[in-house]
Sequence to fold (149 residues):
Amino acid sequence: MQYRYYKQIKFKGTINSFDNEYEYMSLDHIAPFTYMGENYQTINEAYTAMKNLYKDKIKSLKVMQEIIYSKYLNNLDLKEKLMITEDMWIALQVKDHDNYWHNCTCSECFLEQGENYYGRLLMEIRDKFIYDRSKQRKYTHRKWIPKYF
Ligand SMILES: [Zn+2]
Fold:
């Protein structure tokens, strides 16, 4: 998915810790959702259940994308929270050398830029939600709001 083209967003900062107000972004945050007909409590739980089925990297990223998407579709309060972070880059800083999903900043890894696949997928999904709503708004505007408004 590539949605960023529709609107040039200038990032105002980076969300690099999933503590406090951003705890809901954590892979282990409990927010029940359904994916492929099964119920899961966390993204980690769903991905762990699925990952052995998909050895291929692209397919496994697609699965992760679908899992994240399902979580937010099933938790609309979190979807709203995610959407208002639209001007923030998301890249969790970790110390456990996970440069695949996140970005490790330990003394061995700090020169390496993490792939940050989780953050990137989350931002793509956020963009999709914003894009979908902007289309919806246009429609509402045409249909219900007088022209002079
Ligand atoms: Zn490291």
